[in-house]
Queue: 2 jobs
Job 1
Amino acid sequence: MGLGSDRGEAAARVLAAQLRSGDNVALLRHAMNLFGLIFLWQVFGGHGASSRLSLFSVLLILSIVLNILSCSRRRSSGYGGLTVADLRSQGLGGLLHGLLWAGCMVSMPTGHGPAELVAHWTLISCVMVCGAISFAATPLAATGFLLPCVAALPGMFNASGQLPLLALATSYALSLLVGCFIYARTFTRQHSASVQLEEKSEVVSLLLREYDQGAPDWLWQTDAARRLNGVSPRLAEMLGVPASAVEGALLVQVLAGSAWDSGLFPAGLHGLADHLKRRESFSNVVLPVEVKGLTRWWELSASPRYDDAGAFLGFRGVGSDITEQRESAERITQLARFDALTGLPNRAHLRDVLDQAMSGGGVGRTANCAFLMIDLDRFKAVNDTLGHQIGDKLLSQVARRLRHICSGSEFCGRIGGDEFAIVIPHSGPEHAIDRLAAAIISGLSTPYQVDQHMLFVGASVGSAVAPQDGVEPEALIRSADLALYRAKSEGGGMHCAYEPQLHAQAEERRKLELALRDALEKDQLHVLYQPVVDADSAAILGFEALARWTHPEMGPISPAKFVPVAEEARLIGPIGEWVLRTACMEAARWPDPVRVAVNVSAEQLTHPSFIAAVVSALGQSGLDAHRLELEVTESLFVNAAAGSLKILDQLLALGVQLSLDDFGTGYSSLGYLSRTRFNTIKIDRSFVVGASNNKAASLAIIRAVVTLADSLGMATTAEGVETEAELAMVRRLGCRKVQGYYFGRPMSAADALTLFPRDPLRASA
Ligand code: C2E
Ligand code: MG
Ligand code: MG
């Protein structure tokens, strides 16, 4: 009957459905009632039943009105807040109706014959069917209505003695009642099930909504046809469209965006579509999604849903926007694989590319490929003179040019500092590498405009080709490095290909370096002194101190060989300082104004403690500063720091003399001469030899240098004069000082001392 005490929210909703179902067909019942009323008036109106009919009519219309009122009250409340009382009042309405009709059944006049009885019964059965239909979902009202009618049936048929008809009519009416009960039970069961389902989905949507509001991710679900349903506000927001626009749309189509038309789906979408088709769970499927014209990256996970009977309902899962994480991961990869300053692949990346290129020859075989190493010439000078900012801008421009020079198959990167490299997989013939190297050298040597500065740097290239110059990447890199070293040591601005003897030379340098460290500790070095004389009078003006190294096994080793090794191994500092102290101590024993000239490497001169070392050597020996001459070469102005000019000024301020050694062999720019106040320019032996052979260029250079030196108030020393003819020639050309085997080879300190007339004071002392 629906009058139980368990009245939860679900029961209230079932109750509402029951009442609504009755109300929906109330009109039919009312129409039937009115029709019945008219019919009764037609049949019995003329048989003296008018007063009873009138009373019945008024009461029936009143009950109809009452029913309409309660019906409209329920409708206006939207069937909300209904209770058992509403069911009871509907039952009461049914009972009222039933009683009215029962009254009508027993009070209509009888005995007029079977025609009236059949008409009466037909009307009553129609009314009962209509009542049963409209009260079918509410057994209380159905019972209230039908039972009085059943009870009135004997009254209706008894008078006419139609017992079989009475039995038939009673069983008919009772069947209607039973039918109502059966229908009502099915109705309430169905409705409770659907209410429960609705409740469940409401809970889920509630959860979805709550989850959506708080989490950066979102939940989504599809139906069995893989169409989105229950699109949450958050999902709609992420898609950049209103929820209604995608509700019911195919998930794959929504995710594909404009690619849906072109059919060019990203790989992630293909994977997702496969999972959906196979109805299998998937997690962390990453795919690009177009949102408002921008590509976002989504990560989706979901599982298929089934109902209790095992029928597939669709998918439910979570999604998250991982664009930011992806971008930062990409940035990290970018940082790890690319050089931040130039954007070129970095050392590690280059190494990977080289590994790959070399392993392309099949199992156990090294593929043919080339590795080029590039080093900028004179970059350090730019960095030191103009600062790192300008240096960095220059490197960026170098990278740009390199990228431009390299073709698609040539992979260039920055190893670090001013060093770059190129990997050429499947490298062609040797001349192709030569051509590329030449293009790099000329491309990188073209002047650079950085801010307001015009910068000139050059490039040196070393190359090695696999498999002949190295089977392993490590070996190939080392070979290219050795070739680069060769290119640099030959003056830079050139390309050297690897040759096997470079390896031997490098090994020799390494051994020499070890031996030199040892020599320093074991005092295997000594200094020889070579006289410098006045070109006219041949009077000794001074001596040049020249370092010597005699190795116990290797014998005498030329400074031309060990000085560069010492410079590279940063041993020139201690060696140079030792030579300086020794030479000063020795020179202090020579008569004033005889000088001692000491060679100073650029690396040594720019060392922060150099000035202090000079001051200390002079102080310890007691030598007058003007009797010390320091010989520097032009390389100082090219490679060394800008600070070197300042150091030269400080040395001049101490009273020390400066000479420019080997003039003409290096960069031969007369511009250097104006930068500082050299006391002497030393003309290299190669020009002296050239001039004595009447070489026009050598003669011209010596003449020009002498003229320039004279005009700047500097002296000139001709180096390496071996013969009388050479002496005569350099005299003629105007050189004021001469040094060479003709006047004396480098000699021991003791021998040098014997060249001076014995000082009577000292002799007697
Ligand atoms: P340098 O300063 O130009 O020294 C002159 C070189 O010419 C010396 O070679 C000397 O022995 C050589 N020489 C002198 N007269 C003649 C000649 O008539 N004919 C020929 N053929 N050669 C002559 P050395 O001693 O082998 O020195 C070579 C270079 O090593 C020097 O060239 C200098 O640049 C460097 N050096 C020598 N000692 C030192 C040192 O203590 N410190 C530094 N930094 N460099 C040094
Ligand atoms: Mg010298
Ligand atoms: Mg020299």
Job 2
Amino acid sequence: MTASDFSLELQEVSHAYGDLLAVDQVSLHVIAGEVICLLGPSGCGKSTVLRVAAGLEPLQRGRVLMGGNLVAEGSGGSIPPERRGVGLVFQDFALFPHLTVAGNVAFGLTHLDAGARAARIAEVLSQVDMEAYAGAYPHALSGGQQQRVALARALAPKPAILLLDEPFSGLDARLREQIRDDTLHILKRSGTATLMVTHDPEEAMFMADRIYLMEAGRVVQSGSPDMLYRRPVSPFVAHFFTALNVLHGIVEAGHVACAFGRLPAPGHAEGAAVEILVRPESLRVVLPGDRALSDHTTAGRLEEIRFLGSSKLLTVAMAGPDGAEMRLRIRHGGRYLPEIGGQILLQLEPEDSLIFAARKTLAGRHREASDKSPVLSGI
Ligand code: ADP
């Protein structure tokens, strides 16, 4: 793949607001038909990257290329936003209140004659299933309908690149799932290269072909949602996607011993203190009759069950390495469970454990282990 295959490419882009370095040497690319998510906590610089790509923020350092052509360089010139062939959708949809739906969509189509313009408006409104509302004004539409009009307006001029900034965050939770699904289909059908900003990991995993995860202005990991979820490069990345159980241990002969037996700890030095991160869905409840009693099984006491609809969140208490009681959280999909207070067997597949160098002092660990709350972080 060559650079000209990239619909959008950012090379080592940095951006400061006064003394605050909001974006620090971010490089990324998007190809036609791909949906890329820029993900990260609030304030990590995602919107700034998007605004620099759109040309709404002047480029300070680095390079922005579109279709292999340089559109902005930190040391020099820049093509203005309206000539970049980019569609934009923002969180508040920013529809023109005094224009009808058709009028809003017509906004970027002034280069077409009246007939072609009307045809394109009809086509794009049908794509987003809003033909029936062509004459309506934005205030008469629901949030979901406004979002679809904003998308239609952005797609109408057939931009090579679509930039979306938290496009679903103004919608309520139930509507959001449906609109995300619809939007993904529309984007995939349009073949546009899409760069979308979100702080919601579930949304990014649902929408993205690839994710760039940012922390404090830098991209800390990029790859497929599956890759970031299963092979996080740091505790920050691991914690960003779900709450995690945190166990501790010391590396001996390439392994670390914990409640679930000896787990391989490749790449960690002999004697190193490590933390073992385990996702609640990675712990399996071993049912009576299961013959899967492996070395990686341990018993605890079922303390609490919370119903989450399709699964349950269990709290299980067990003896920790230093004798103090510790608690783990398990996401359990099955129906059978012992009574509260009963014994429960848990199993961990070693490959589902994420092992990183420990970040806490021993004193901190003792405090955590004796705490009454689950040994869990990130909730
Ligand atoms: P995100 O989209 O990840 O929430 P932003 O790119 O909006 O992050 O902001 C990154 C950092 O830059 C934040 O600390 C924010 O307060 C700051 N920032 C954003 N825009 C401006 C601005 N126009 N002037 C000064 N600081 C800004």
